[in-house]
Amino acid sequence: MKPAMLKIVTGLVAAYTLAVMSVGVMAQTGETIGISVQQLRDPYFISIIYGAQKAADEAGVKLIIHEAGGYGNVDRQIAQIEDLIQKKVSMMIVMPTNSRGVAPVVNRAISKGIPAMHMGSKVATDKMIAFVQSDDHELGAAQARYVKEKIGDKANLIYIAGPPGVTWTKDRWKGYKSIVDTNSGHKVLDTLWIDSSREAALKKTEDMLQTYKNLTSIGASGDFMTLGAGDAIKAAGKVGKIILTTAGMSKDAEDMIRNGVIQMTAAQQVVQIGYVGVKTAVQYLRKEKYSKHTIIPPIIVTKENVDKVDVNNIRHPDSFRPKLIYP
Hints:
Blueprint: H1 3-29, E1 32-37, H2 43-59, E2 62-67, H3 74-86, E3 91-94, H4 103-111, E4 116-119, E5 131-134, H5 136-151, E6 155-160, H6 167-180, E7 186-192, H7 198-211, E8 217-220, H8 223-235, E9 243-246, H9 251-258, E10 264-267, H10 270-285, E11 293-296, E12 299-302
Parallel strand pairs: 1-2, 1-3, 3-4, 4-5, 5-11, 6-7, 6-8, 8-9, 9-10
Antiparallel strand pairs: 10-12
Helix pairs in contact: 2-10, 5-6, 7-8
């Protein structure tokens, strides 16, 4: 290689190395946001983390992501929040396994100078700086309105509420019931407070189909549970005979909409929840103007309009995998 060319190449390598080192320094010395999430087996939560990571990359902040592995693992989430305290994160975003169960450790973090905010579901404390959520009341109410429009004045309903002890399940149930209560001919035969899993919903729905022969509709607070209900309806040969509604639109739920198993979803803009959550945290840390309460509206999706829906704000790409850090 000629000396002049070697000098140019050497200069370019040095410049590239300096750029890489600068990025590394930014990641090490900039803001760090810790996210504590209930679980990451459900596409809903993976999509939230995708949106959060997208916002973090744009802002040049580092994320530390812990997941408790399920709503029953309150102690594990508490330990993970303690880990975020030990790591002295700049900010903490909490999606609680149990709103009251994790409140003491979140308050302890705040007392140590780590600001915290809720995302998706509330922690039972008034010390959080912000809350980003779906319109949970509307997610339930929209389902009940759809059933009323399709069935008319008489309906026998089951509602799969999901795990107890979290605000989003309670608020979606309240929204659903608020519409049901306006029509005396609509009767909720049972409300199922179960784990947010396909397997739990499958088993419970099988039981309900055996118990209530005159069932006309099943609603669910989240599409992971709805998939289990859909599996049970298919196995029972009742596709199209029972109206199935949900909140959310994972790829599997979209397929069930196209196949007529699910008739309607109030699709949450889940990616947007995570994106706005981290963006809000960054605005707070950088002393910029921010919203203390952001509600992300749903998109009503049926078989008739499913081809027209932009899913970029609804779910994560298939290739995305959250980068987890375990204490």
